[in-house]
Amino acid sequence: MSAAEPVDLTVADLHPALGDPTLTSMNFLNEVSERYPAAVSLAAGRPYEEFFDLAAVHRHLDTFHRHLVDDLGHRPEQARRLLLQYGRTKGIVHHLIARNLAADEGITVDPEDVVVTVGCQEAMFLVLRALRAGPADVLLAVAPTYVGLTGAARLVDLPVWPVAGGSAGVDLADLAAQVHRARAAGLRPRACYLMPDFANPSGLSIDTAHRQRLLDLAAQEDLLLLEDNPYGLFHSDDGPRPPTLKALDTGRRVVYLGSFAKTVLPGARVGYVIADQRVAGPGGRVGPLADQLAMIKSMVTVNTSPIAQAVIGGRLLEHGCSLVAANTRERSAYTRNLRHLVAGLARRFPALPDQPDQPDRPAVRWTVPAGGFFVVVTVPFPVDDALLDRSGRDYGVLWTPMAHFYDDTEPVRALRLSVSAVTPEQIDVGLDRLAALITDEVTRLAG
Amino acid sequence: MSAAEPVDLTVADLHPALGDPTLTSMNFLNEVSERYPAAVSLAAGRPYEEFFDLAAVHRHLDTFHRHLVDDLGHRPEQARRLLLQYGRTKGIVHHLIARNLAADEGITVDPEDVVVTVGCQEAMFLVLRALRAGPADVLLAVAPTYVGLTGAARLVDLPVWPVAGGSAGVDLADLAAQVHRARAAGLRPRACYLMPDFANPSGLSIDTAHRQRLLDLAAQEDLLLLEDNPYGLFHSDDGPRPPTLKALDTGRRVVYLGSFAKTVLPGARVGYVIADQRVAGPGGRVGPLADQLAMIKSMVTVNTSPIAQAVIGGRLLEHGCSLVAANTRERSAYTRNLRHLVAGLARRFPALPDQPDQPDRPAVRWTVPAGGFFVVVTVPFPVDDALLDRSGRDYGVLWTPMAHFYDDTEPVRALRLSVSAVTPEQIDVGLDRLAALITDEVTRLAG
């Protein structure tokens, strides 16, 4: 800081989240991609944008408007008011979200249990704000954990305790142990957060039998589960998709977090939460947790833009409320890219029989997910932000250090690759550059 | 609660804001207006919707798209990405907001100091989240206070200390006294919140000389001012509009909270904050407070829908970035309504020379604001939610008890009337019904 530069405040005067690595690292990742715009980005988890179309946005808006008038019988001035005036805190496309969940996920939802949010991020934020009542509360989360969850928890002063993921997607013995450990310490584990389908960042999915055991454990331990499902629709054709936790949930154990960013458009910033848990209020009034979340929402964003909701609503209506059907092209692009990436890794890092794995220096390995956007590559050296910066500058390829998804400062020997926003040609170039980086790094460390 | 009704949680398990009157009263006010849809509503602070037009929304979107391509030189795929993909946390219409503030408010702003938010509510929330670092922090706010500010403060566990408004809009002696009182108690007053123009709910404005004295006091006491300005454009033609605090601010004392809900469309849910305060971070890096707010925003809503921003951007572009020009019809409707309401009150409640005021039983009085949406009527009896419910049911007129704008449980003998969402004919009917209620209530209490 130069002596001449005026300063009005310091970060230490502000909320502690602002000095926390979770928030600053998110910033760092954005800055790196701005710093090296010419690099191939295998970092961005953005959806494929080749099919984005502004004309479709206009059409969706009109489709939803016609739905208000023709299907729901609104007078023109009522329809105009719904779209353009202040409105219902819980949203105006809740009925279509209920139909979508019935069609695509086999989830039966009362539309009154839906809160339409400003992206899934606000849904997470509202749930964590509601659940954090005091300093004894903690949140459990399967590690590695989506950064947006950890960041939202920081903003409401809610500690996040990692639960081992293991190869099954969630280690139930560890989950039980963490619950017991928290309770023994006088703390209150409010919920366990996880992405059961093609998790960000691990790429792992949980199989049906294990989902059932997880629900049983949650009932036994009286624990809520926060199920985040942005990628479920993007499975390969190799086998049937397991049902969501919410579809299996008979005891209102699951708060379901939904996103339209990947299945419709990120630019609408529309997500939702299904919160059917029954909450007793003063005077013995009982209503859904959704109503409590809406009260919080009224003081965060008032309501989700009805114009943005109408874009999503129109898209849903144009496809019979099924986003499976609407995403045929996108799904095959992601599946193609995922296979291309995995094959490309196998070609560039063949198994080397003369260099057997050693515990402290494993070979290059990677996950082979059955869908979603992400592959995790394990390498024989620690991967940090400095290496990413060097990768962008000297090698022209960007990726995400897995250390960003762990809530501690231990070195992590892994990086995340995303296939969602690139072409097969870009994957080839990116993998060539990544292979060069890894080879150089191994040589450097051996030398 | 019936014995058969299942319960999963109680409000007492959740964040304390959910049991707080600030949040539940907001809910109550919404419920009352749903319960009596046939009543004339002098309660709603919604903008006049007669000129709302879905075709204009389509046009604004296209106007902004053309601006990206023609004025800013974006390639078609770049423009599409900006509108539909994930994007810049601080927003994409910041340059147009800077032009708008220069044109309409005489405020010079670096676009990098702007954060585009999901309505002004999110702007308030971000600022309060940033400023509340620990339990010693308190916020000062001119009373009566906008409910959305108090609600946002509740969500971040930040106590709100009232500062007397007085007839000048803010009582500077009381402001200084509250600052000293807080500091003497070991607390840290982070800022003082106020609406200098046609405040919600008081209708009061602060004159230019008093604004200058307020800025001097803020400098002397090293205090930030949070200036909220949703109504400034809607002044009558009776005299010049005083400059905003931000226009007078030479010491980066003012965080300016802006809204497009009343000047463009509530349904876009777009607002903004100007935060040019210089913040020193770790390693001596100095940047605007706006960047810190953006880090918080990335964990609350990620970014504001670029589609919604484009609607606002297009409207700005179509009017040379001046919303004064764009709101000629709206402003004359509000001015007409305000005069009609004040004249209607004078006709229905003439001064009664044979019933002189007594301290414990004043006659009916009202404010005469020079603009904005709100008139406060003082009556000779306490005004509470039960009376509002009776007014809706038995008299067919809705209004807002002023008690909702005070952060305590003292009875308040006043109610707020809004002129923004009604016609002169509805004002006549509403005032007839209100006069009947007041007369009956005075008779009942005297009897």
Structural key phrases:
homodimer, 447 residues, alpha/beta, Aspartate Aminotransferase, domain 1, Aspartate Aminotransferase, domain 2, 2 domains, seven-stranded mixed sheet, four-stranded antiparallel sheet, 16 strands, globular, Aminotransferase_I/II_large (chains A, B), PyrdxlP-dep_Trfase_major (chains A, B)
Number of domains of chain A: 2
Alpha-carbon distance between the two ends of chain A: 38 Å
CATH class of the largest domain in chain A: Alpha Beta
Overall strand count of chain A? 16
Quickly give the structural class of chain A.
alpha/beta
Proportion of residues in β-strands of chain A: 5-15%
Please give the count of helices of chain A. Answer: 15
Low-confidence stretches of chain A: none
- Most extensive interface: pair and counts? A-B, 89 and 89 residues
The mean pLDDT of chain A is 94
CATH architecture descriptor name of the largest domain in chain A? 3-Layer(aba) Sandwich
The largest sheet of chain A, given as strand count, sense and whether it forms a barrel, is:
7 strands, mixed
Kindly report the spatial arrangement of strands forming the biggest sheet of chain A: 3-9-8-7-6-4-5
CATH homologous superfamily caption of the largest domain in chain A: Type I PLP-dependent aspartate aminotransferase-like (Major domain)
The shape of chain A is globular
